[in-house]
């Protein structure tokens, strides 16, 4: 872990905010396992008031006080302030929900996958104990992940603001006909076309909704802004990869439809006809907890179950990959930790 974060939390009692997917059958058992391990090492656990029942931290099965040292917090920006991190139990949807609170408090978020694909999550449920052991030892690193800031302008007046970790999806609110737009990059018009929508995504979001819409997979070490038209009626409506310092704008025509801007599929901004959406690199990143050093390519192959039969490669690389394939749940040794990033899928975000 970074020295700055270590000094910050050495001077006070450690606390971690737990965010959990209420629909998972294994949630209660997993959440209580987390509480038990943290209690053993003197780490306090916070839970949200609206999740206390689903995690059964309010009472046990007989209605008695559960006994774990859990602090119940109201769901709001202050919930994660002062915590060492936010721990998300679920899939990428749960992770995105946790990231909202973590970003407000400028603390990192760690995902444990109870969902299906879970690109953003760092560990699988079967590796829960080892992941928590690394947290207890502070054997982790923090990675800054690029976000986008989004503004809506009507008659050159800002009407709404928001941010996203994965993508801002501009869609036709009427769901009938096409949305007529003009795309602009760095103050210059690029193309006008009719479409179902336009996505502006980060590298984190390149394997989420943008991937489903035909966008490229962008390695997370590369900072960039992606622009992906959705079902565009135009000869030139290809995905674009622009500088992370670019300003992307999408204008809707005054005689067309109203639109909606979906931020990570969780928050919305209204875009009236004739309005304008602008997206730029976010001023505040999302901080991710990293436990191991698995390359992004390995994670992508594993999460998407991509076929790699027939790969030869260099002998040393091949032997290492084959060993990893024989033990898919094996974790790297403690201390062999380096920066690397993950993405999420649209389907997992919606489900989890």
UniProtKB/TrEMBL annotation:
Keywords: ATP-binding, Cytoplasm, Kinase, NAD, NADP, Nucleotide-binding, Transferase. The active site is at 92 (proton acceptor). The keyword ATP-binding applies. It is found in: Cytoplasm. Residues 313-352 are annotated as: Disordered. Its main location: cytoplasm. The keyword Transport does not apply. One of its GO terms (molecular function) is NAD+ kinase activity. Belongs to the NAD kinase family. Involved in the regulation of the intracellular balance of NAD and NADP, and is a key enzyme in the biosynthesis of NADP. Catalyzes specifically the phosphorylation on 2'-hydroxyl of the adenosine moiety of NAD to yield NADP. This is NAD kinase.
């Amino acid at each position: 872990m970074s020295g700055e974060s270590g000094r910050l939390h050495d001077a006070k009692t450690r606390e971690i905010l737990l965010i959990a997917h209420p629909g998972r059958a294994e949630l209660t058992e997993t959440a209580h396992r987390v509480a038990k391990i943290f209690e053993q090492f003197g780490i306090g656990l916070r839970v949200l008031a609206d999740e206390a029942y689903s995690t059964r931290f309010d009472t046990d099965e007989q209605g008695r006080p559960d006994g774990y040292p859990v602090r119940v917090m109201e769901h709001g920006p202050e919930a994660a302030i002062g915590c060492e991190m936010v721990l998300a139990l679920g899939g990428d949807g749960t992770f995105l929900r946790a990231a909202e609170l973590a970003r407000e408090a400028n603390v990192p978020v760690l995902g444990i996958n109870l969902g299906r694909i879970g690109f953003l999550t760092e560990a699988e449920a079967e590796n829960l104990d080892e992941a928590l052991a690394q947290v207890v030892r502070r054997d982790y690193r923090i990675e800054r992940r690029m976000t986008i800031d989004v503004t809506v302008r009507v008659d050159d007046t800002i009407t709404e603001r928001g941010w996203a970790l994965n993508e801002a999806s501009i869609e036709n609110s009427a769901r009938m006909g096409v949305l007529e737009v003009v795309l602009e990059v760095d103050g210059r018009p690029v193309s006008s076309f009719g479409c179902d929508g336009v996505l502006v995504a980060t590298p984190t979001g390149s394997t989420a909704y943008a991937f489903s819409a035909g966008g490229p997979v962008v390695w997370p070490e590369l900072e960039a802004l992606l622009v992906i038209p959705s079902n565009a009626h135009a000869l030139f409506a290809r995905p674009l990869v622009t500088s992370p310092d670019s300003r992307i704008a999408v204008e809707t025509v005054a005689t067309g439809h109203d639109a909606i801007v979906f931020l990570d599929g969780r928050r919305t901004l209204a875009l009236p006809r004739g309005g304008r959406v602008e997206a730029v690199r976010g001023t505040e990143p999302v901080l991710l907890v990293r436990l191991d050093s698995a390359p992004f390519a390995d994670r992508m192959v594993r999460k998407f179950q991509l076929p790699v039969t027939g790969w030869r490669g260099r002998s040393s690389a091949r032997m290492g990959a084959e060993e990893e394939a024989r033990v898919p749940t094996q974790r790297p040794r403690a201390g062999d930790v380096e920066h690397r990033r993950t993405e999420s899928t649209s389907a997992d975000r919606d489900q989890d």
